[in-house]
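Hi R.,

As promised on Friday, here is the backbone we talked about, encoded as structure tokens. Could you run it through your design pipeline when you get a chance and send me back a sequence?
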């Protein structure tokens, strides 16, 4: 079944009922839905919505979704430690923090995401992954794919094609996983490299792996074929019809409260502010008038904000008043280039207009901002 034969929203005729009743009135033991959006925040919000609103005792759900380029970190991770934030900004790649634990992955349209929603009691990652492997094998029996004991799916015994994470609620749960079809591996590896040295934290570290795209192994495969094969296998195991119901995550009528969920996932406070406390101890090698100046910088960052800040500048390099103003305004600020740029620009404005001071200040600030 291609996308053209995908049935439109099954619950459209029942928008006047409560959302729960609405989902309820669809197929018996399960529902397969696919997002029409490629926005990572909207799609993660759909996960939250289903987790919070649906009665998964009555029917389990498989949610299929793909995102435009994004890096997705785990709930307890540190984005500065996990990826190259500067490169993400340059390339316009979104950064999202999901609610499940685990490591950092790269998404683009060449990567499929699958979310298996069940009650907490019925949550079974291995079964879900075996279902995916079975679907792949049904499509291409010669594929050498298997599930590892850390719930990755490997191709040819060594290449990761799928990573897993999960969220267990009080009564509901979901297990979601990726499937690399033809993602940009060059971008994947370059954005998942942190330039940071000297960062200390208790955040969950990712477990880097060699990755491969399924389409490298078989060029005749398409994402639609894979989605369809997975939907078929899921439908068979749940004894439901294998129609894929399209869902629009921007539809407040169908998913009341979804836009607030989407907005929350986009906030700085969620993406960066939820980072476990960390400290940075680094040395800025600043080239000034043909010599290299080593400036030690130590910072403690809590909730994404600078809590303690020490910059070890040579004496008299900056007027002492300006130095203490700098440290004072950095303390409490977001560890974020935009915020720091605004702050140092404002500080310089109240300083004497001296060329020498100006170039020293710019050099220091540029180096500090590059850290973030
Ligand atoms: N898209 C994708 N798929 C599989 N493996 C990937 C991907 N991107 C990066 N990687 C590799 O996995 C490691 C991190 O492995 P690690 O085991 O640390 O983390 C994971 O696997 C998390 C999977 C989360 C899945 C969610 C499903 C929907 S939203 S995100 C990374 O360093 C790369 O080497």
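Update: got your reply. Pasting your designed sequence below so it's all in one thread:
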């Amino acid at each position: 079944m291609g996308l053209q034969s995908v049935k439109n929203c099954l619950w459209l005729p029942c928008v006047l009922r409560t959302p729960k009743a609405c989902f309820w009135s669809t197929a018996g033991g399960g529902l397969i839905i696919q997002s029409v959006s490629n926005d990572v925040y909207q799609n993660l919000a759909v996960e939250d919505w289903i987790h919070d609103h649906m009665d998964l005792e009555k029917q389990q759900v498989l949610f299929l979704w793909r995102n435009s380029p994004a890096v997705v970190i785990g709930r307890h991770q540190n984005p500065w430690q996990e990826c190259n934030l500067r490169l993400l900004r340059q390339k316009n790649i979104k950064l999202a923090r999901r609610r499940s634990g685990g490591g950092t992955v790269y998404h683009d349209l060449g990567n499929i995401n699958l979310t298996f929603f069940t009650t907490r009691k019925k949550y079974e990652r291995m079964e879900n992954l075996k279902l995916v492997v079975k679907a792949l094998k049904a499509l291409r029996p010669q594929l050498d794919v298997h599930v590892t004991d850390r719930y990755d799916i490997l191709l040819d015994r060594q290449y990761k094609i799928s990573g897993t994470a999960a969220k267990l609620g009080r009564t509901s749960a979901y297990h979601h996983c990726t499937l690399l079809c033809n993602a940009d591996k060059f971008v994947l590896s370059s954005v998942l490299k942190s330039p940071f040295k000297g960062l200390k934290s208790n955040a969950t570290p990712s477990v880097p792996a060699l990755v491969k795209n399924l389409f490298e192994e078989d060029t005749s495969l398409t994402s639609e074929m894979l989605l369809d094969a997975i939907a078929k296998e899921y439908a068979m195991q749940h004894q439901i019809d294998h129609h894929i119901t399209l869902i629009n995550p921007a539809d407040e009528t169908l998913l009341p409260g979804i836009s607030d969920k989407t907005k929350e996932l986009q906030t700085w406070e969620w993406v960066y502010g939820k980072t476990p406390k960390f400290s940075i101890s680094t040395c800025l090698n600043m080239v000034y008038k043909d010599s290299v100046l080593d400036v030690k910088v130590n910072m403690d960052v809590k909730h994404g904000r600078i809590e303690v800040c020490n910059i070890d500048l040579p004496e008299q390099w900056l007027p002492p008043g300006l130095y203490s103003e700098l440290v004072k305004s950095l303390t409490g600020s977001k560890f974020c280039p935009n915020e720091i740029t605004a702050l140092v620009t404002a500080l310089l404005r109240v300083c004497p207009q001296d060329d020498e001071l100006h170039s020293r200040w710019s050099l220091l600030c540029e180096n500090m901002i590059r850290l973030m």
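One thing I noticed while checking it: The radius of gyration is 24 Å.

Thanks again,
M.
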